[in-house]
Amino acid sequence: MKVLQDGSILSARGFQAGWSCCGIKSTPGAPDVALVVSERPAAAAAVFTRNRFAAAPVLYDRSILPGEELRAVVVNAGNANACTGPRGLEDARETAALAASLIGCGPAQVAVASTGIIGHPLPMERLRRGVEDAFDALSAEPHAARGAEKAIMTTDTRPKACAVEAEIDGKPFRIGGMAKGSGMIAPNMATMLAFLTTDARVPAELLRQMLASAAERTFNRVTVDGDSSTNDSVFLLANGESGATVPEAGAGREAFQEALLHVAGELARAIVRDGEGATKSIEVRVAGALTEEEAQLCARAIAESQLVKCAVGGGDPNWGRVVCAAGYSGAELQPELTRVDIGSVTVFRDGLPTGADAASELGGSDVLIRVHLGAGQAEGAVWTCDLTKEYVDINSMYHT
Amino acid sequence: MKVLQDGSILSARGFQAGWSCCGIKSTPGAPDVALVVSERPAAAAAVFTRNRFAAAPVLYDRSILPGEELRAVVVNAGNANACTGPRGLEDARETAALAASLIGCGPAQVAVASTGIIGHPLPMERLRRGVEDAFDALSAEPHAARGAEKAIMTTDTRPKACAVEAEIDGKPFRIGGMAKGSGMIAPNMATMLAFLTTDARVPAELLRQMLASAAERTFNRVTVDGDSSTNDSVFLLANGESGATVPEAGAGREAFQEALLHVAGELARAIVRDGEGATKSIEVRVAGALTEEEAQLCARAIAESQLVKCAVGGGDPNWGRVVCAAGYSGAELQPELTRVDIGSVTVFRDGLPTGADAASELGGSDVLIRVHLGAGQAEGAVWTCDLTKEYVDINSMYHT
Fold it and tell me: Per-residue DSSP letters for B201-243?
């Protein structure tokens, strides 16, 4: 597997992207509509938020997926079309139908995604123009991907994209992707959108299995503040353009799964690194758990502990807060066998602090916290970021 | 039931308190040892943290409770005696034995409690002197209670105490209490200590039932940051001094339970109001849930949402964050029947924002958020506080 320099959703062949500025975002001239189109019908898979207040675009997408193959996804940023009632669903449907008529496909072949403020109806007049402009701008050139990456951003400070190339039976295929994240990222994919494209041919059911598995191990393992949003969605379109076909089992399937995990993992970690106000990314790895579920439970409790996140932000290797979070996580553990490492320094062992100073392990932008529970063999991991005054600023100054 | 002005643990008759400064806290002259003594053996009940890393004093107390009646509780602040291994347990045992020898009772008649930094052995030489000094200072006068309330504080900014008087069959009895809280307060009673005294006579088993029930509805319903500590403990001593006896059932039991709920509730809310960096206390009430468990689950998700807490701190009536937290809480709800009120203003109804401005409802120091899930009849409530930059300051500047 090879990571492609400047990789994007257009690294996979047979895709085009377009974007436009239609004035949904309040910043004048900010791109806010993106359109990703597969030149031919593509097998499609998606994973959506489990929030009971799923937004209109999610409700719409669930109504068309799984179904026929998809030709496109239309995205807007600046307005989430959430908590907008029947009108919101109608707007989502109309947006898809408009894009479909431009592309020349069936309305059920276009998915939609939205992110931004909730509780306000989509400004449909602007959005219609935005979709038309984005369609007119469709291109397979890299600049089109770069524009689309910016168009889906909200409080993100930078675009997030990635692509890899691998092969199946000597035939190369590519997987590319883009994502937006920032605040409210959490397990179950809070306020996070990701769009993945591949030119491999993948049977629809296999594609769904592989995306679900990859999302579980990447997007569902990142958390900024524990909140899950109404709009989180991950899409994967496979158009077969490369001629490489992913088999149900064997080396070809493994090659595809590995490539997919890489792209999804890179995007998920990019989201955490760009968490609101974040200055450091934190990886929490838990080993020695009774079950994988308990390992995840424990890693998440540590990663979501405000006290742990504040300590990392302040450069304090506070093993006590880590141990405490492990203790209340609900995961089985043996206190006298528990071990905590911060970076390469063991700070807690056999139920006691070692006295070793791990402050230097918190100096960089990536922090690794490892915990062994001494209860079993299972492992888990969660990625998060530190909690800073800037996070509080961003989220208390923002007004509805 | 009558709330007593300047009520304290000494409002109940037959109790004495003493305190001392022995230098465990780093601030010179800060009181750090408290002793609460019942003049005669008292029925005792306690509720402890569920953290798997329970501190040595909790392990010790569990070993003597339920058991004989208690004569006293010794408390120190500044050092939690947590993650201190076998030596910590030995120190807890020795502290209890020392107090018992001074009082002239069996060592198993003295419980211990500690709060403060974790991972450091108790400075026993100082603590021994502190226990002796506190014993020498024992008094039933109000000033003794005031000193004890200060001695148990850590990052608390003010002492927390309360007492009420009620009667059973015309005989008056009293319940008093003191507590310390501040950061890391959470369900399962994180870094929180509470000491309750009553001069009612209550059979031990009934006392345990009533304390468990009251704690579930008060101390276990407050959260500052979701973290649960290694040391949380609530004690209730009933010495029968008033001659009022609580029956297994009927009006007398109800009078006692009501009085106990009042004192425990006041202390729990005082803890939230004094949360680290807090400027507002927030009560989240959930109704229309399928079960009480789901109502609590939903109230807790809202109360622990960093986004909701930041919004309240910033004076923003952000119904979207409330709705979103309800949506991912796991509680069953009907989106189109869900309703959110901030203070007396309905901000969300029938799945849509009402457009009403509730900013003025966030102006005071107490904020009420009510959510109706439209799924059933059950109710729940959780108390919390806002999340401010001061919280992040306190918890990132603090160094281990």
Answer: B--HHHHHHHHHHHHHHTGGGB-SSS---S--EEEEEE--TT-
Which of B308, B395, B397, B398 would you mutate first to test chain A, the one with the most A CBs within 10 A? B395
Residue B8 and residue B146 in contact, taking contact as beta carbons nearer than 8 Å: yes
- Per-residue pLDDT tens digits for A102-132: 999 999 999 999 998 888 999 999 999 999 9
Please judge whether B324 and A84 are an interchain contact, meaning their C-beta atoms are less than 8 angstroms apart: no
DSSP string over A259-295: HHHHHHHHHHHHHHHTSTT---EEEEEEEEESSHHHH
Q: Which helix (H) or strand (E) segment is B15 a member of?
A: strand B15-20
Instruction: Judge: B52–A326 Cβ closer than 8 Å, yes or no.
Output: yes
Does residue B306 carry a pLDDT above 90? no
Cβ–Cβ < 8 Å for B79, B122: yes
Smallest Cβ–Cβ distance between B328 and the set A188, A313, A392 belongs to A188
- Partners of residue A178 on adjacent β-strands: A161, A195
- Is B191 a residue of the active site? yes
Taking CA atoms, B185 is separated from A174, B96, B224, B275, in Å, by: 49, 26, 5, 8
Q: How is chain B split into domains, by residue range?
A: 2-273, 281-397
Q: What is the model's pTM?
A: 0.85
pLDDT at B273: 86
Give the Cα separation of A278 and A367 in Å (integer).
12
B114, B76 Cβ separation under 8 angstroms: yes
Rounded to whole angstroms, how far apart are CA atoms B262 and B257?
A: 8
The closest of B210, B215, B235, B220 to B74, measured between CA atoms, is B235
Among the partner-chain residues B188, B338, B393, the one whose CB lies closest to the CB of A328 is B188
Residue B185 — pLDDT band, cuts 50, 70, 90? very low
Distances (CA, A) of B189 to A350, B49, B66, B223, B250: 26, 6, 20, 8, 30
Annotated catalytic residue: which of A49, A84, A95, A191? Answer: A191
- C-alpha distance from B62 to closest chain A C-alpha (Å): 17
A307, A339, A393: best mutation site toward chain B, by most B Cβ within 10 Å? Answer: A307
What is the rounded CA–CA span in Å between residue B155 and residue B158? 9
Name the residue among B190, B336, B392 with its Cβ closest to that of A389. Answer: B392
DSSP A103-120: HTS-GGGEEEEEEEESSS
Question: What are the Cα distances from residue B363, in Å, to B222, B317, B356?
Answer: 22, 10, 16
CATH fold group of domain A2-273: L-amino peptidase D-ALA esterase/amidase (3.60.70)
Distances (CA, A) of B231 to A347, B87, B207: 21, 16, 22
User: Do residue A83 and residue B323 have CB atoms under 8 angstroms apart?
Assistant: yes
Q: For tokens 């990019």, name the residue.
A: A270
CATH 3.10.20.340 fits B281-397, yes or no: yes
B21 vs B148: CA distance, rounded Å: 11
Judge: A118–B320 Cβ closer than 8 Å, yes or no: yes
The Cα A238–Cα A219 span in angstroms is 19
- Check: CB of residue A196 under 8 Å from CB of residue A234: yes
